[in-house]
Amino acid sequence: MYDREIVHRVTKGDQSAMRAMIAKYQDLVLNTCYRVLHNPADAEDIAQEVFIEAYRSISTIKHQDQLSYWLYRIALNKSVNYQKKNRFFNRVLRIDHLLHKKDCVEMTGLASADNNAYQDMVRTEKVRLFKEVLGRLPARQHKALVLHHFEQLSYKEIAIVLQLSVSSVESLIFRAKQNIKKKYRHLFSEFLE
């Protein structure tokens, strides 16, 4: 089923079209939530909220053939908002990374080639600190940098997701990197290239 047809049918209240939308985009939404929250249970909860929000507001979608970008934007917004509201997020993140250091390294694609335990530990700690620093950026800079660095979207794709111009996306990513470089350049040079 094409996105335009899904949007049209869900707008009319077709439950099978809603199930088709969830089946088609559940991985995208869940992965987006996880990339921001780093907690599977929270990511699943927020992903459910994303689809509830999508169902309620699908009639507001402007470009029906860009359903994936629209869902991506909702997932990103809900995840970042949840992260900002959750006072204990940083504490839980620290504990989670201490318990699952190897998973953290593998999920971010940063596992060292020589499997040196010390290098892996240092790299994992850098990843944890980098994600913590990301959480301190202004929301739009945070979203743009997550989409660019972790999701590896092009500036044009990020512009569609965030509903901005490509030059605005370039500016957001540049400012995010500058904000991080000011305080943490020596730790995160490999993330900011």
Describe this structure in words.
The chain has 193 residues and is an all-alpha fold. It has three domains: 1-86, RNA polymerase sigma factor, region 2, helix turn helix motif (Rna Polymerase Sigma Factor, Chain: A); 87-135, no CATH class; 137-193, Arc Repressor Mutant, subunit A. It is built from ten helices and no strands. Helix 2 (15-37) crosses helix 4, helix 3 packs across helix 4 and helix 8 (139-150) crosses helix 10 (166-188). It is globular, with a radius of gyration of 18 Å.
Briefly say what this structure is:
The protein is mainly α and 193 residues long.
Features:
Rna Polymerase Sigma Factor, Chain: A, globular, mainly alpha, single chain, 193 residues
Strand content: under 5%
CATH architecture classification of the largest domain = Orthogonal Bundle
The dominant shape is globular
Total number of domains: 3
Question: Which fold name fills CATH's third level, the topology of the largest domain?
Answer: Rna Polymerase Sigma Factor, Chain: A
Structural class computed from helices and strand pairing: mainly alpha
Architecture blueprint of SSEs:
Layout: H1 3-11, H2 15-37, H3 40-57, H4 67-85, H5 89-99, H6 101-107, H7 117-136, H8 139-150, H9 155-162, H10 166-188
Helix pairs in contact: 1-2, 2-3, 2-4, 3-4, 4-9, 5-7, 6-7, 7-10, 8-10, 9-10
